[in-house]
Amino acid sequence: MKSTSIGRFQLSLTAAVIGATLSMLALPTAAQQAMQPMAIERATILSKPGVFGVFTMFKLRPDWNKVPTAERKGAADEVKKLIEKHKDNVLVDLYLTRGLETNSDFFFRINAYDLEKAQAFMREFRSTTIGKNADVFETLVGVTKPLNYISKDKSPALNAGLSSATYSGPAPRYVIVIPVKKNAEWWNMSPEDRLKEMEVHTTPTLAYLVNVKRKLYHSTGLDDTDFITYFETDDLTAFNNLMLSLAQVKENKFHVRWGNPTTLGTIHSPEDVVKALAE
User: Quick check: is 126 catalytic?
Assistant: First the structure.
């Protein structure tokens, strides 16, 4: 009887150990399933704070035209497949600058919740046919943040104006990227004084929000600039007038960089951009 009891105890102990082991093995799998990335939703990622933006401008090498026609035409499908592969990690926009810019032919805007995911996409892009035949002219890195100045609490009237303004023009055909860097005097001002300057800055822009879309990325400490200003519009004259209005406010005196480069391009699907460059 004693031998039987010991045998039953050993069997129970073994079963318990196996059960516990299986449970422990199951935990990482469940955790991994819970952490599976969701497909990137364009409207969501473009409206959230804490999203990284990577802008990379490329210039095609002269030898690109020597690449066999079939390979150049196949490059569009190659980029399309790469974007599909990374669709759960990054939002990819590709713009055509050839014919409008001297130092670039196209550029990417990559939005990602994790900066390393954007880096991974760009690394793989450099191994594509077109990526191997292009040189980087400029890279800008920033992150989106809640409004620093024109918030509901700090400037309610202007915040209401920004919130109520809706883009109502035709679908934008043009994109403009302007990096901005402030001087030490700006950063050493009190928050209250910077708020006053930004209120003066914001007031003349309200009239243009119906035909110019804008988005701001913060870059201080991440890049050699402080802000990346991104615009979309179908009305370049209105955009020009917007820039003139901003050039005339006092806050403009605190800039040590405005553009340099300013990048102007046209909006297309990534596949169509590469097809245009393969012609």
Answer: no
